[in-house]
Specification:
Length: about 280
């Protein structure tokens, strides 16, 4: 059975503690609206990964509102957060197309200790899927589709599991985390946050997702222009939990979909710092 975890927003009633707090700073580069920072605290964080930083960027839709003029600014933001690994959450190509080689060549300029890991989104279909896979391969991005990548520091390790097409539960309805163990510290990367509610994601310590765009236009988190989750506003943006209490961080993403507009939902890069406490 999965051990219970608690956040800094709830009472600490057991030895296992999981805390998460968020802050946001506006980007100085104009490429994204803000950098959203979270701290995730747990005694299960391996000692060698205390202070480890994950940068998460998703929903580029290149080119949409996010186009060529903002690309190098995004690279500067990602490089400036000094992350140890860069995680990408899918939806790389815009509706009107976009040069995937150009996008991933730029993202390849972001240097981290453990490189770049990625999953696909719902826009990676047909030609877009082929173009994205080719660009990832050529620029050293590791695609993790229903498999687990192991990050090692000495004898310690951190596991990053990726979900393949989380909308096709007939084929992908068994989470790649089920084969892992409770003592592992596991980050689950999935395009849509609905996946962590639709299927058991046992052994997951943190899930990262996008897809919702924060609603793109949102008023007081009660009304939004874009409803990309079947759970309404439950997984709209920010730090949430699924029914099993597993923390899920949902990003507003970088680009726009359907309509090229944002209001009260700034585009963002997410940074999560892990702390052993």
């Amino acid at each position: 059975m999965r051990k219970k975890r608690y956040s800094c927003f709830g009472a600490v009633v057991a030895a296992m503690l999981l805390a998460s707090c968020a802050t946001a700073s506006f980007s100085r580069h104009g490429a994204v609206g803000r950098v959203k920072r979270y701290e995730l605290c747990s005694p299960q964080v391996p000692q060698a990964f205390d202070g480890f930083r994950l940068a998460f960027a998703t929903d580029f839709h290149y080119e949409s509102r996010f186009g060529r003029k903002r690309l190098q600014g995004l690279v500067a933001v990602l490089q400036g957060v000094a992350a140890d690994v860069l995680l990408l959450g899918g939806d790389y190509r815009g509706r009107e197309g976009g040069d995937m080689d150009e996008l991933f060549e730029a993202l390849g300029q972001v240097r981290t200790e453990f490189g770049t890991l990625a999953v696909m989104g719902n826009h990676e279909r047909g030609e877009a899927d082929s173009l994205v896979r080719k660009a990832m391969w050529e620029h050293g991005v590791r695609l993790i589709e229903h498999r687990v990548d192991t990050l090692r520091r000495g004898a310690d390790r951190l596991l990053v599991a990726g979900v393949r097409n989380p909308f096709d539960l007939r084929r992908n309805g068994v989470s790649p985390t089920l084969a892992l163990h409770d003592e592992d510290f596991v980050v689950l990367l999935t395009h849509t946050p609905d996946y962590v509610e639709d299927v058991p994601v046992t052994h997951t310590d943190l899930a990262l997702a996008g897809h919702t765009h924060g609603g793109q236009v949102s008023l007081f988190r009660r009304w939004s222009l874009a409803r990309f989750s079947k759970y309404g506003n439950r997984f709209l943006t920010g730090r949430r939990r699924n029914s099993e209490g597993i923390p899920v961080i949902v990003s507003n993403g970088i680009g726009t979909s359907r309509r090229d507009i944002r209001l009260f939902t700034p585009s963002e890069v997410v940074v999560v710092e892990l702390r052993r406490r």
